[in-house]
Amino acid sequence: MTIRSEHHARAIAVVALFASGIAVAAQAPDPAVGSWNLNVAKSKFSPGPAPKSTTATISATGTTYKVVVVAVSADGAKVNWEYSANFDGKPHPVKGNPDGDMVVAKRVNATTVETTYTLKGKPTTSNSRVVSADGKTMTVTSTGTNAQGQKINNVQVFER
What we know:
Helix content is 15%, strand content 49%. The chain is α+β, with helices and mostly antiparallel strands and 160 residues long. The chain has two domains: 1-30; 34-159, Calycin beta-barrel core domain (Lipocalin), CATH 2.40.128.20. The chain has a ten-stranded antiparallel β-barrel. A hairpin with a 2-residue loop joins β2 (53-61) and β3. The longest helix has 24 residues, at 3-26.
């Protein structure tokens, strides 16, 4: 191997090593991924009443995020809903959510995601989901109008 080709080979190796480091850094785990339980006492629901319980499970596969919500309403009824979406600015179907049949998700930064829901083509609610710096708390602030036409302003505090 000549000096020039040896230098070229080293340069390619350095570039490959650097590029793989960027790929690893770009794939840092999303702090929202995992299972979250609603702390009803720390949450605020307007209008009420608050649910008895809610568990949100967030998973990621590639660029697709799946959110599954299992709740027990104040009257004891089970409410289960879910969606899978990319942060591509396009609407994605929602199954089982009484306040939205489509969602658009947007990543604001590493700890914040905004979602906007529509029901039969009409805007309903917007959510801001923020994971705390220590990764132990997720706060979801919801505003808009629910399927019953009531104005909502909810702050849901979830913990691991």
